[in-house]
Amino acid sequence: MKLDRLRNSGSSLDPRLYQIASLSAILLYGLLCLHFDVSAAQVAVTIGAALLAQYAGARHAGLPAFDPKSPLISSLSLCLLLRTDHLAVAALAAAIAIGSKFAIRWKDKHLFNPTNLALAVMIGSGLGWISPGQWGQAAWFGFLVAGLGSLVVTRAARTDVTLAFLFCYAGLLFTRALWLGDPLAIPLHQLESGALLIFAFFMISDPKTTPDSRTGRIVYALLATLVALYVQFDLFKPNGPLWGLIACAPFVPLLDRLFPAVRYDWSRPTTGQPSVPVPLALSLHPQRRFS
Amino acid sequence: MRRILVPAFTFLLGLLVWSGDAFAFCGFYVGKADTKLFNKASEVAIARHDNKTVITMANDFNGDVKEFAMVVPVPAVLEKEQIHIGDPALLKHLADYSAPRLVEYFDENPCLRDDLMQDRMGAMKNRVPAAAESTSERNRVLGVTVDAQYLVGEYDILILSAKDSAGLEAWLAENGYKIPTGASAVLHSYLKQNLKFFVAKVNLGEQAKLGLTHLRPLQIAFESPKFMLPIRLGTVNADGAQELFIYFLTKQGRVETTNYRTARLPESQEIPLYVKDQFGDFYRDLFTQQVKRESQRGVFLEYAWDMNWCDPCAADPLSAEELRGLGVFWQSNFSGPQRGRNMPMAQNVFLTRLHVRYDAAHFPEDLMFQETSDRSNFQARYILRHPWTGTDECAAATAYRQQLRERYEKEAQRLATLTGWNIGEIRTRMNLASLPAEKEQAWYRRLWNN
Fold this sequence. Notes:
heterodimer, A: about 290 residues, mainly alpha, two-stranded antiparallel sheet, two-stranded antiparallel ribbon, 4 strands, about 65% helix, disordered N terminus, B: about 450 residues, nine-stranded mixed sheet, four-stranded mixed sheet, about 30% helix
């Protein structure tokens, strides 16, 4: 009885609140200590535009309530990663991120991670850029702690995809270094990127855009890793993981078909495994959620 | 940056209206920090657009030219036409144009009543412009292929590829190139990455024929998606950290490192007047402090500017012809209309100057770059602000004199923070003790002015 109550109170705390808190803390540290090239105005515009887009989208799609949590996560990630000289570009990026959740859908599930798509469009069009080197070591370790913390808070709902990606990515970097005869300082240095951690803990792990089943997610992480390394070491372009994820997103419906499982709901974090008891109402009448 | 851009543009427009009068308020460019301040400094200019890259390499080699040799990993076998001798004067001009700079300006008489005007000018005044001999058999044994061999200017150039690094290392040693021990691992890594080696040494006969006493910079042109600078060979067995200045000439915007943090140097700082005579020392120590602050892993932005203008100018912008000499290939031959004081127009060229102090421990990987769409301007600029020394008496003048001491103290503390110099010595040099101490007025006196 007591245990049940504890479990219920635990699940009522949305893991996204933790993500918002940690992203905000990292952004503040970046602004105040690392002097990120992002103005207070850009932060305000990005967050404002994301909330506005969510509100408009929710009204348009007839959602029961306006939920600011997801747009906050998307816009905070954008503030951490996207750099531009123009406020209009920041607003456009936020609008694309949130707009894509409502516009680009497949079987009642949005296809692209909002932040990922917005960044790809902005960088692809030359309107903005990412500074992958902007993080110092201290920030990186802080970030690592925050990211690991988020794994605990999300109660392993999507830990598999993050860990699969990180292990695979790190493993291949070390293999490459061994093949080249490079000192291990090189792959360690390559892993020391804040952008990589945002990607691993907040982007690829997005439960709404990852495959529903664990097998699907691990295959997905492997695919994204391979594309990321191809971009980095064969095309010689930065931000490999970002391009890896955007290229693999269209395969999610296919992976869901090959490895079917339960759809994710933020209020009931699950791994999608059949062994986890699923409320009947949820499995029979999946609610339309756009968060 | 936006903060600075807007008033700077406002002022340029304003200058046309006010003409000569405006100069009365101007800050004057008084000095720059030379790249020669730093020991073991290399300078590289990279002009790049659409994967097409021209690299100009210079170093401060002072020893016997017989000893000079350079080994640079390059992505492809270069044709003779892809190698060129650069003009050292152009690199010097580029260095001067983008150097950290010192400006000074003079406080106005505080008794002047046109407050509004002053406020406007005050915001603007500091932004005013003023002023191979091995046999083929031996090569085969070592697994080294001489892909090409050229004589370019005073240099003998070889393009080498090799099966393995030990063979390459042995070949280089047998052919009189001093390769530091430990270079083998790095050579191995580069070979695996399909890089070729561009090897240059001085042909003494040619050098004598040309009558040269110094080494001119070498230029190479190639097309590759790799936007990087190999620094690893240089860190092997290096005695301490090395300085590298990299000048990027690009079409789109600012260049930054993607695998190291690119940090901006502190800029627009007001510093004590006595620094005027030792700006070089000031800048060198400031740079060292910044390197420490970034845990010796930072790459520093010293200058980022559209090549069309400068403000203030440490040297005139480079002409289209000079830029062409440094590898800017995307400009048409048209040298635009002359603007202002002999300022030739150079369109579509954005200059980024990065300064890095590197060693193997803190820079394990080669420098990788990306060109961003950022066209906002940045310069490492430091300000001397001369006080008003007039004798006029008015309430504003009294208030002005009272806050001077506080201002000097702030300048002293700022200088100590920036350079790590001893604050006591700074205060002594500034003669702060001789200034009358500011009398703290009771708050009610300030309130009712009685």
